[in-house]
Amino acid sequence: MGKRTCLIMAFILFVLTLLHADITATYVSQPFLGFKLGPDISTSLTPGNTFSSDKLVAHIGTLEITAINEGLMRPYLDASDFDRPYMFRGQFNTWGGGVQDTEFYIYAFTSLSSSPFPLWLEDGSEALAGDSNTVIGVNPFVVDFFFVSHHDAQYYEMGELYELVEGVIGGFNVTKLGYNEKGKWIDVYIPVNNQELPEDGSPPENPVPIIGDVVGGDIPSIPYGGDPPPIDYLLSIESVVSFDIDDAYIGYTPIPIANCQLTLYYASGNDNAVYITFSNSSLLPSFRLHHTASAIPYVIPYTLYFLGEPVVGNELISWEGLGNGLNETLISVGNIDPVDAENAPTGDYRDTITVEVESIM
Q1: Dihedral sign from CA coordinates of 142, 146, 151, 156
Q2: CA-CA-CA-CA torsion sign (65, 323, 213, 161)
Q3: How far is CA 199 from the centre of its chain?
Q4: pLDDT in tens, the chain (361 residues)
Q5: How many CB atoms neighbour CB 66 within 10 A?
Q6: Chain center to CA of 317
Q7: How far is CA 84 from the centre of its chain?
Q8: Cα–Cα distance, 202 to 340 (Å, whole number)
Q9: pTM of the predicted model, to two decimals?
């Protein structure tokens, strides 16, 4: 399904700054929760047959912790707003049959796991790799989270919905073992999905929801079997800025002038891809800045850059490595001939560009 949006470039200077951290984490919750028989559940970390056939299982999400220039020791989930038991209501074909409430647990499987293990998140803190103070020997360290049935999977009915009717599913922060300024061992917070960390070492104010976008939000009913809805796309062009033309001369680093944001819904993994097409009103393969006074026909050729590469108008560009949720990349301009710019009549110049996204089937 394609979405189309228009970009009208206005011109001021754009400045980009980068933030560096030694250990960071990303968490991606599953956009579509679906129960399957245990052996049928698999992710890039968790192989099929990890869970037995007597379990009904749904993949909740994946946490990835990456250490840069230092080792990762003793990662913990610092959980909040969880309350057991997690009771799901739906068709259950034993004990007289009909609609019944049955219990599920939250399990984890990690880069170091030999088998999945339950998490008691209502206790507030859960070790993800044991209590050892040694450096973890894998980087990144990855954790998958799952709902797992307490009762035998054979009693649940394919095609039925199961609704959470008791228990609270909350959010979490992530801590690791580290040193303070006095050389003492302390637990320090790791930023998850670019969380802001308080300078005093206290917990971040915005725990990451393990399901959905908001801690304590409604959990959708979960189907047993069935396919997820098709991936949907929302394209937007943000932070459009202007620039001085002489800053975009040939030989200079291209100037970022906009942020292309593509939000995916119902996508799985981080290997999704789309086609992006840029075009101007004249449908030419090259791009030109036009004087804002329509009576002045002078144009200044320029090169548009996307994903760091020159753009040819009306040609498909493959944007790969996309995950569910927000994906971003810069749009830049450059390669302006100084002769064209210095011979140009005085005034403001702009171009109007149409950006189109198309799914790759």
Answers
A1: negative
A2: negative
A3: 26
A4: 443 333 333 322 222 223 334 888 999 888 889 999 999 999 989 999 999 999 999 999 999 999 887 788 889 999 999 999 999 999 999 999 999 999 999 999 999 999 999 999 998 889 999 888 888 989 999 999 999 999 999 999 999 999 999 999 999 999 988 755 555 677 889 999 989 888 888 899 889 999 987 676 678 899 999 777 788 888 999 888 999 999 999 999 999 999 999 988 878 777 889 999 999 888 889 999 999 998 999 999 999 999 999 999 999 999 999 987 789 999 999 999 999 999 999 999 999 999 999 988 6
A5: 16
A6: 21
A7: 28
A8: 56
A9: 0.66
* Residue found under tokens 């006095």: 182
